[in-house]
Amino acid sequence: MCILDTNNQLNIDRMKFKILKSLLFTGILSCSISMAQEVGRVERLISPEISAQNDVTFRLRAPKATTVQLSGNWIAVNPSL
């Protein structure tokens, strides 16, 4: 009888471990999905946007910014070409 009780306890422990593993996996998966949905709710910016008149508009989302500075290496365009 002692051997049967030990085997039963071993099987119960294995079952508990499998259940715990499944619950942990499910929890991690649901957190990942909810974070992915949160990111998907953010309005996407189109930047840079080039108009038909060749104007370029840069957009950024910085609700707490007090100043914005744009710099770069701009290529001069010769209008006579």
What does this structure look like?
This protein has 81 residues and is mainly alpha-helical. It has a domain at 2-57. The protein is 48% helix and 5% strand. It has one helix spanning 2-40; strands spanning 49-50, 56-57. The protein has a two-stranded antiparallel ribbon with strand order 1-2. Strand 1 (49-50) and strand 2 (56-57) form a beta hairpin. The chain is rod-shaped, with a radius of gyration of 30 Å. The N and C termini lie far apart (97 Å). The mean pLDDT is 76.
Low-confidence stretches: none
Number of helices: 1
**SS strand fraction:** under 5%
What's the pLDDT, averaged over the residues?
A: 76
Brief summary of the model shown:
With 81 residues, this protein is mainly alpha-helical.
What attributes does this structure have?
two-stranded antiparallel sheet; single chain; mainly alpha; 2 strands
Write the layout of secondary structure elements.
Elements: H1 2-40, E1 49-50, E2 56-57
Antiparallel strand pairs: 1-2
